[in-house]
Amino acid sequence: MNKKRGIFSLAVTILLIVLLAFTTIQGFGANHAGAASNIKLGLDLAGGVSITYQVKDDNPTAEQMSDTIYKLQKRVEQYSTEATVYQEGTDRINIEIPGVTDANAILDELGKPGSLEFKTEDGETVITGADVRTASAQSGQDNMGNNEYSIELDLNDEGATKFADATSANVGKQISIIYDGETISAPKVNEAITGGVAYITGDFTFEEADNLAATIRIGGLQLELEELRSNVVGAQLGEQAITTSIRAGIIGLILIFIFMCVVYLLPGLASSLALLIYTGIVFVILDAFDITLTLPGLAGIILSIGMAVDANVIIFARVKEEMSRGKSVRNALQTGFHKATSAIVDGNVTTLIAAAVLQFLGTGSVKGFAQTLAIGIVVSMFTALVITRMIVFGFYALGIRKETLYYRPLKERAPVNFLKKKKIFFAASSIVILAGLVLMGVNGASGKGALAYSLEFEGGTATNVTFDKDYSIDEIDAQIVPVIEDITGDHNVQTQKVAGTNQVIIKTKTLDLDTREALNQAMAEKFNADESLITAENISSTVSSEMRMDAIVAVIIATICMLIYIWFRFKDIRFAASAVLALLHDVLVVLAFYAAARISVGNTFIACMLTIVGYSINATIVIFDRIREELRLKTKGVELEELVNKSITQTLTRTIYTSLTTFIMVAILFILGVSSIREFALPLMVGIVCGGYSSVCITGALWYVMKAKRSKKAAE
Questions:
Q1: CATH class as words, domain 3-24+239-405
Q2: DSSP per-residue string spanning 656-673
Q3: I want to staple 220 with a disulfide (CB 3.0 to 4.6 A). Which of 129, 385, 673, 703 is the partner?
């Protein structure tokens, strides 16, 4: 590599950093495109619109309410994956959509819920809205090349059968779409429609097609709804939550930069510069793809910065190994990047598969988490394998080639006999997991609940209080929330301001009549609230049973897909089985911690568990990659136990360093963050430690036990 190329590489790096910094801080044009300030924020950070619907039907069943809530949830996700739908009282449904401020515009786009029927010319009802899965506007071109817009209807199985019969009998005739007694479209049947998917064509503009699709979607509910009220609600958390999280991210970045430069010298500086580029690219992508960012999401991005170090640690650990064997700086760099690529790609692709499954099958916060996870994975691979490589070879091309700048000679570590203690490790893990399960059973039997479920999972009480002045969110957090916590015993209180009023919506666990009265009295006496205007309603969980099932199914399918990929890449089902068992181990240990510490189980619980799965699989893949490499080089005199111990020892430094850098980021979040962030960070710290432990002490031992048992059977 010549000097000019090195200068060019470093100039591109500096330009990228400056450009991304400018874009993130300022953005371009009047709309500040690309700026971090343009990123859509969730209800917790920026507020949004709250719409309450009243059910028209008398005495709706729990099943009808649940089905309607689930379908509405799927529909409002077009605005944000973080939108929530939950039941209020016995016959009301509340929708909260973050990042928007015009309730009327949302109501127009979402449509007015009412009855929907498809009728033939003689008045016979063919199907109802309950038979329609979804409807969407489609664009295409006619035979003349002009733009043409249509509506695609996707019917359920029962609806597809009924529609096939009706269209077969009415070819050439009209089937009218009637909404709340009014005909909104009367398309002619050109041919029998038997596949469960139908298209409504006509002289539509895109807006007309989109509005008709929205009306059909909202008409597919089991219950008829009417708007009761709508208002704009403020952020659940104050500015302090954002500023402390950003401050934690900056401090964490600085500490990681120092750590990488001290441990890996000049390559560490290269990886630190690449991390700056990584951070900038992530924020630009969040803005470009209109992804809603919640506080757990913000914490997840800060966490991903720590995890992004992982690929660089793998690379430079390899470089140090090659230099310790006497290779030149250039050859060591080339070989190090080459050997590290397989572990980096396998680990990240495995997690990316999980993210893709969660994105397509998950709902709500699971889908939102999958989006940020996928972004982090793709960008971290790009910055590690392309940007870091470009920078470090740029340094070399400029003539910075002194070995001591790339490598500090260390005494080679003798292989540690981890497998000798495998029974102790297995027993310790089993005891912790069993204790957690027993504790969950005891808690459940005592009436406390197996876990400390928050109102997202269990529902609660929403109390609307009108104060004598307009309190800021920070004032509410500092003055009012502690009083609420003291009265209710709930340490996961959520508050929202209603824009343009002095009203504050207080969400807590379900309160009995005495506690409600005590809360009302305290608000009146201590904060001059008008007690006559205080209202309270029980609300359902925002994570419905259907959403929980979606999440469970998505995780199971993601796990199966990861298992298949690892099996395919490593050509050995034992690698895949060991990795999945290690994942299960980490999840159960963290679950035991949730049970013991009684940490609130809400939306952050889902994000926490999914983060641990993604983090843990990466560490496991690195060790398995080294075992695979050693198996190819294995001579007859080398015992399998010795090979596994050697592989774990060779990757031990990487495991410790990656766990340490990630732990640093999360620990700073825990120290500086608000209470909701601390509840997210604490179990994550446990998960990081547990993931490092299972990678070193459990996964390799599991694979060895399975492999040795198979070899013993073959020998017999």
A1: mainly alpha
A2: HHHHHHHHHHHHHHHHHS
A3: 129
- Quote the pTM value: 0.74
**Model pLDDT for residues 421-444, shown as the tens digit of each residue:** 999 999 999 999 999 999 999 988
Q: Report the residue count for the chain.
A: 716
How do beta strands 92-98 and 48-55 pair? antiparallel
Helix, strand, or coil here: 538? strand
460-539 adopts what CATH topology? Alpha-Beta Plaits (3.30.70)
The one-letter amino acid at 52: T
Taking alpha carbons only, the member of 296, 294, 339 closest to residue 314 is: 339
Give yes or no for a contact between 497 and 454, defined as CB atoms under 8 angstroms apart: no
Same fold, 47-71+80-233 and 419-437+557-715: no
Confidence bin at 239 (pLDDT 50/70/90): low
Cβ atoms within 10 Å of 487's Cβ, excluding its own: 18
The Cα–Cα gap between 317 and 339 comes to 10
Strand, coil or helix: 406: coil
SS (H, E, C) 245-297: HHHHHHHHHHHHHHHHHHHHHHHHHHHHHHHHHHHHHHHHHHHHCCCCECHHH
Q: Distance (Å, rounded) from C-alpha 673 to C-alpha 684?
A: 14
Distance of CA 539 to the CA centre of its chain: 25
**Which 8-state DSSP code applies to residue 188?**
B
Q: Taking the domain 419-437+557-715, which CATH number applies?
A: 1.20.1640.10
For residue 161, what is the DSSP state? H
Is 104 in a helix, a strand, or coil? helix
Q: For the chain, give every domain's residue range.
A: 3-24+239-405, 47-71+80-233, 419-437+557-715, 460-539
Number of neighbouring beta carbons within 10 Å of residue 424: 10
312-339: average pLDDT: 87
Task: Tell me how far apart the alpha carbons of residues 613 and 569 are, in angstroms, rounded to a whole number.
Answer: 19
Nearest to 542 by CA among 606, 622, 625, 613: 606
Q: How far apart are CA 301 and CA 282, in angstroms?
A: 8
* Cα–Cα nearest to 530, from 479, 465, 462: 465
Structure-token pair, residue 596 = 């013991």
Please state, in angstroms and rounded to a whole number, the distance separating the CA atoms of residues 24 and 119: 54
**pLDDT value at residue 429:** 93
Q: List the structure tokens of 702.
A: 């599991």
Structure tokens given for 652: 């031990």
CB burial class (10 A; 0-12, 13-18, 19+) of residue 577?
middle
Beta strands 116-120 and 92-98 are: unpaired
Q: How would DSSP label each residue in 12-72?
A: HHHHHHHHHHHHHHT-BTTTTBT-GGGS-B-HHHH-EEEEEEEE-SSS--HHHHHHHHHHH
Cα–Cα distance measured from residue 128 to residue 130, given in angstroms and rounded to the nearest whole number: 5
Q: What pLDDT, on the 0 to 100 scale, is given for residue 714?
A: 55
Query: Running DSSP on this structure, what letter comes out for residue 697?
Result: I
pLDDT tens-digit map of 685-695: 998 899 889 98
Name the architecture of domain 47-71+80-233.
Answer: 2-Layer Sandwich (3.30)
| Integer CA distances (angstroms), 660 to 256, 313, 356, 653, 654, in order | 9, 11, 28, 10, 10
Contacts of 473 (CB under 8 A, 6+ apart): 234, 235, 236, 237, 238, 239, 495, 497
Q: Per-residue DSSP letters for 194-238?
A: -SSEEEEESS--HHHHHHHHHHHHHTT-SS-EEEEEEEEE--SS-
Question: Per-residue pLDDT tens for 344-403?
Answer: 888 888 888 877 887 777 666 667 777 777 888 888 888 988 899 889 988 888 888 888
Q: Which two tokens stand for residue 42?
A: 């969730």
What is the enclosing helix (H) or strand (E) of 95? strand 92-98
Strands 132-141 and 48-55: unpaired
